[in-house]
Amino acid sequence: MSDDFLLSDIIRDERICTFFQPIVSLKTGEIFAYEALTRGIRDESRSLIDPCALFAQADRETCSLEFDLLCRKKALENFRKFHTNTEAMMFMNINTSVISSRDNETHHIGTISRQMGFDPENIGLELIESKASSPDELMSFVRKYRDSGFLIVIDDFGCEHSNIDRLIQIHPDIIKVDRSIISCIENDPYRQSILKSIHSLAEMTGSLCLAEGVETLAEIKTCHLLGVDLFQGFAIACPSPDIPRLEEATRTQVRILQGEIHTASMDALRRRRRLTGDINVLADWLIRQIDPTNPESLTLVFQEFIAMNDEVECVYLLDSRGVQISETIVSPFVRLQSRPSIFQPARRGADHAYKPYFACFEALGIQRYLTDVYLSLASGNLCRTFSVQLPCQSDAPCVLCMDFLEEPIRTPSAPKQS
């Protein structure tokens, strides 16, 4: 054998124990659920066997279904002792590779849950859809248990073969974002962008977004600012079989974390408020420097403006039809940035009439507009465009456009007038 135990013996003697790890909402301060995690028990030493070793051994001994059923039974038995003292749910992992219409395991979950006094609404079923042996049987499983009232959770999303098409079909109640995306996310704009996209998808499909495996305060702060609803990981609490003690320690840690993220949230809101205010200050300064009736004179003014504000990526001027009448003056940082050739600043004569930062004036009857975040075709960075109408030749308005770097957001300082 590749290990010093037989899983068939462990199943026969029911030598497993269940550890629980809390899943919390830092927005409400509540423990949302506990995930049930299985550990094996060696007969002689009573030492614990890692779950990865257990499931690998189950594959080798072809007893995955029997082991999965035992894990569910023990999880429910152990959580039942605490269930009446908490409003938290219990999540348990479902080995989707053993889901089959030929077996009775799908009937087993609902039956044993009710026998132990659990309402289906108190149970979340965690699925790793990429491991399902049959997509059709997985979908049948999901439909059956959602209709019965169970919560459906997609586990490890973003790991290996995550399937967005399947995600939309399953329509989970909760999407658990894999640790591979969460790790060091505070320093990685790519991971941040991916998490933003997953959170947006979760919102659009009516799901909650859960950051799995958070290990540092920095990861929690970043995920919270990106909208994550639920958190699980060592930074919250380590798994334990002692739920009452675990709950007490978790509530203490949640209060500490709430204080930290409250400060971070307030700082982020103030930065964004200052940024919006400073953009107007910068626009007013720039408007006073330019002569929109003489586009040829704009280059030097725009270059000086960008040199004093490294948050500004591009500056350019449009006429009353949305046609660009100046060259795009680009930040030196953008010019030095290595990027694919598909990202190039627009040239004089480019048509911007259908862009939100120009169409907004006719649609909304306003004179200033700050766009939502979008991918700049000039730089390949995330940016916002601030556009301002100002008088131009023949009293027809032209539009001054400034592209501000969004990632990372840093508050620009207004240039001083000489």
Automatic annotation (TrEMBL):
PROSITE patterns referenced in this protein's UniProt entry, alphabetically: EAL
Single GO term (MF): cyclic-guanylate-specific phosphodiesterase activity
Gene3D superfamilies per UniProt: EAL domain, PAS domain
InterPro entries on file: Cyclic-di-GMP_PDE-like, EAL_dom, EAL_sf, Sensor-like_sf
Domain EAL, first and last residues per copy: 1-253
Protein name, UniProt field: EAL domain-containing protein
Taxonomic classification: Bacteria, Pseudomonadati, Spirochaetota, Spirochaetia, Spirochaetales
